[in-house]
Design a protein that fits this description.
148 residues, 45% strand, alpha+beta, seven-stranded mixed sheet, 7 strands
Length: 148
């Protein structure tokens, strides 16, 4: 039985890197949830892998770029605005990720791409701040589980 791909190992490393930041701020942490995050689960950090592309092929090595989205979710808890709480959560998540941009040697690098804001007037005002990151890594052309 083959081991996990480098991509999966990277995603697991991202979740583990974010866990202390989420815990410290009383947030839940989720990876690719299939249902909406409930009010009881907020504040929350959510990790979504979005896409992957191949940027270079050299001999038997393939350089890949994995794009993932980390979303900080918060609901209004007066007097604090939900954007303030979501921002604090995303700030902590960003610091946790940038503390090891090589993700324990799995990646060549990690960089932030963009950030957005989304405030909704639901049953309680909610804020979602998604930030996108690109992780560059290398594998063997014939084996996704072996670093290149």
């Amino acid at each position: 039985m083959a081991g996990n791909s480098i991509r999966e190992q990277i995603l697991l490393a991202v979740v583990e890197a974010l866990r202390p930041a989420a815990t410290d701020l009383g947030a839940t942490l989720h990876r690719s949830p299939t249902v909406a995050i409930t009010r009881e689960q907020c504040p929350a950090l959510v990790v979504f892998p979005e896409s992957e592309s191949i940027t270079e092929r050299a001999n038997d090595r393939v350089t890949r770029e994995l794009t993932m989205r980390i979303t900080a979710l918060a609901r209004a808890v007066p007097p604090a605005a939900p954007e303030t709480q979501a921002d604090a959560l995303l700030t902590a998540a960003h610091a946790a990720l940038m503390a090891d941009v090589n993700l324990n040697g799995l990646a060549l690098g990690l960089r932030e791409i963009e950030c957005e804001w989304d405030v909704e007037d639901a049953d309680a005002v909610a804020a979602a701040i998604p930030a996108r990151y690109r992780i560059t890594y290398r594998t063997l052309a014939a084996d996704l589980a072996t670093p290149g």
